[in-house]
Design brief:
2 domains, Immunoglobulin-like, alpha+beta
C-alpha cells in the first residue's frame, strides 16, 4: 500500500511538471508570434513612401531651381520668386513621395546681384537638411536621404 501511494504521488508530481512545461512552451510560442508580427509591421513601415518637401526662402528677388524627385529624375525651374510661392502668392514647397533611402537634392541660384537664398528639405515633417548662401548669383545646395 505504501508503495502504491508513493507511485501515485510521483506520477501526480511528474504530471503537474508536464503541465507547467506545456504552459511555458505555449507562452514562448505566443511571444515569438507577437515578435514576428511586430517585425512584419516594422518592415511594412520601412517600405512605405516618405513625404518629401523642398522649401526655398530668402531675400533675393528670384532664383533658378534644380532638384531631384527621389526617383533619380532631375527637374529645373527658372525665374522663381523667393520665397517660393504659388500663383496666389501663398508660400509653397515642392512636394512628392520618395522611397526610403532615396537621394534627395535641391539647389537654388540667386538670379540677382544681392540677397540671400535658403533651401530646406523636410522628410515626414522633420527638417533633414538646411543651408543658406548670400550675395549676387550665389548658389545654395541641400541634399539628404529619404
Amino acid at each position: 500500500m505504501k508503495r502504491l501511494l508513493a507511485t501515485v504521488v510521483v506520477l501526480a508530481v511528474a504530471g503537474g511538471g508536464g503541465a507547467l512545461w506545456w504552459q511555458d512552451r505555449q507562452e514562448r510560442h505566443r511571444r515569438e508570434a507577437a515578435e514576428a508580427v511586430e517585425s512584419l509591421r516594422l518592415q511594412e513601415r520601412l517600405m512605405e513612401p516618405r513625404a518629401v518637401e523642398y522649401h526655398l526662402t530668402g531675400t533675393a528677388a528670384g532664383a533658378d531651381l534644380t532638384w531631384s524627385d527621389g526617383s533619380g529624375q532631375v527637374a529645373q525651374a527658372t525665374g522663381k520668386t523667393v520665397p517660393l510661392t504659388d500663383r496666389a502668392g501663398a508660400p509653397m514647397s515642392i512636394d512628392f513621395k520618395a522611397s526610403r533611402g532615396a537621394s534627395l537634392y535641391v539647389s537654388a541660384q540667386n538670379t540677382g546681384a544681392t540677397g540671400t537664398v535658403s533651401c530646406r528639405i523636410v522628410v515626414d515633417g522633420e527638417t533633414v537638411a538646411e543651408n543658406t548662401s548670400s550675395g549676387g548669383y550665389a548658389t545654395v545646395p541641400c541634399s539628404a536621404t529619404a
